[in-house]
TrEMBL record:
Name of the featured protein: ATP-dependent DNA helicase RecG
Role: Plays a critical role in recombination and DNA repair. Helps process Holliday junction intermediates to mature products by catalyzing branch migration. Has replication fork regression activity, unwinds stalled or blocked replication forks to make a HJ that can be resolved. Has a DNA unwinding activity characteristic of a DNA helicase with 3'-5' polarity.
Record flagged with keyword DNA-binding: yes
Keyword DNA repair carried by entry: yes
Gene of this entry: recG
Amino acid sequence: MSRAADFSSLPKPAQANLRKLGIIDAQGLLLHLPLRYVDETHITLVRDVRQGDQVQIEGEIVHSEVQYRPRKVLIARLQDDSGQLTLRFLHFYPSQIAQLKVGRRLRVFGEVRGGFFGWEMVHPQVRAVREGTPVTETLTPVYPTTAGLSQASLRKYIDWALDNAALEETLPAAVYTDLPGYAESLRALHRPPPDADLYALQERSTPAWQRLAYEELLAQQLSMRRHYAKRRSLGAPALAPSKLLIPALLASLPFALTGAQGRALTEISRDLAQRYPMQRLLQGDVGSGKTIVAALAALQAVEQGWQAAIMAPTEILAEQHLHKMQSWLQPLGLEVAWLSGSQNKKARTQALEAIASGAAKLVVGTHALFQEQVQFARLGLAIVDEQHRFGVQQRLLLRQKGQPEPHQLMMSATPIPRTLSMSYYADLDVSVIDELPPGRTPIVTRLVADARRDEVLQRVRDACLQGSQAYWVCPLIEESEVLQLKTAEETYALLQASFPELHVGLVHGRMKPAEKQAVMAAFSRNELQLLVATTVIEVGVDVPNASLMVIEHAERMGLSQLHQLRGRVGRGAARSSCILLYQQPLSEMARQRLKVIYESSDGFEIAQADLNLRGPGEYMGVRQSGVPMLKIADLTRDEPLLHRARQLAEDLLRDHPSAVEAHLQRWLGHAAELVKV
Ligand code: ADP
Ligand code: MG
């Protein structure tokens, strides 16, 4: 690939430092792009500066001293042909005192501010020069770097790569029509000419930036679509549409499917009838009714003599699925098996037998489902609820329980903005349930400062005495699980003491699964009116009579977490409220999050706001997802490029496989095959 650019010819310590930045070859150096730029191509006269300018000034030191009061500071004065500039250092080394001795000729770079004694610069960059030393000819790039690797050396290595590495195009020229070439773009970004538009460069909106963002998006789409195609080339059981079981279940339900549920089911049903494995994500806001769609999909497999499995991330959620599935499927004469880490040996052995013999048509469970001992007779469909809670590897293990490859349905209650799902889920087909079942009353959200806790307690008591039920969610304490538990237990004791007339329960992540289930079951039966909980209730819990939720320290929680928690109420016909208790003072970020959750109850809108506030990298574990991360492209700014890349990827994969290979090699290098399988 690269002619003379042999990375191993660089000094060993430099190689080690570059590796820390993830750079392992000359291409990596080329694609290590500047964070920002500084303009050292001109020298400005002191007379011409304006407040706030970033400028370079050259002159001679005419005064230099260390003052000790009120605190230690190094002050020097630099004289040019037009005036004087004060240089101020609050931290400095002895070497800097020497560098700033009277009589030295220096070029200083920094922001000028008007001080009491005229213009000054605090902590400028300083460079010793001789009279007539030429200024740099390009804007100076500033790179992300690591301890032990100076900007100057990094620039040197990148220059080396620009001069020696191959900068050829990977994809056919037609791909880029309106954008500059690869080599030209890299030069424009690493060595921008003095007349370049500094603002556009910093904003990453120049054609050169666009070109590289597009390259990167193409790499991402190509790699994900290639995985999609690879999985599609596997064989799967073609499951003909159901004639008996689906109509029978639909007829037994007390409700009709919503339009959105019906559309999702049609898409799934069509996929299941194919000879290759379905790879579909079912997205729908909390409470949109994904579970029944999953049950109906399972029936299509069962009717053709195959088994289906549903895996959920927590025992509480899995158990709830079990009850629903049993109530729907048992009347149809179908056996539902249960597998969890906490069940006793006898129950487990029985379940394993029923799964292996094929007697169990549907298997519901937790992580226990993909353990080694679990042998399915004929697994035709694997359903994963709250799929983002599982790792890539775990989902893979479940799929491997089928022979041939089972169809795969993933579900997520975390709505994802469209751009992100095109990027994050580029290797899946997506069905969206964008409509809630009718008859839900909207949840009223209130923000209440913690100082007004007593009023909130009163409100909880009133609601419970009038026959509804309430959740009290304890604060998230990320630093310490022990502390979180302690807080939950204290809150529980306190609320029990405050409400002698109510039955109060406690559920937290450290309880044994059986204890947890007992508490949840008691709450479902309305034997407990108030449930004190840690964030374990975040996913899936469905108790329609619960109409009030209090969330303590709501300012510590993320948007999607708040949205999921709030979705535990508003599931019945009663008017529901969610009270977000917050502690002042609020950080700006927390204030914005609370504003979003207060103003919106639409999961997609909240997800978009979350993305805008946090940026895609921080968004719901995208980093752990196995999806190649974007370093240059920005899904908000570069949305049009993403659409283009998405459209083009299929054509390129079909018509130019070797070009695609070269492109992925450049962008993902050795990681090209590490993305999810
Ligand atoms: P989620 O999508 O969050 O998993 P669930 O599947 O738990 O939502 O459904 C939430 C509630 O709505 C359940 O009690 C379910 O039985 C009910 N439900 C589902 N679909 C409909 C519908 N079409 N009409 C009325 N209620 C429905
Ligand atoms: Mg659910």
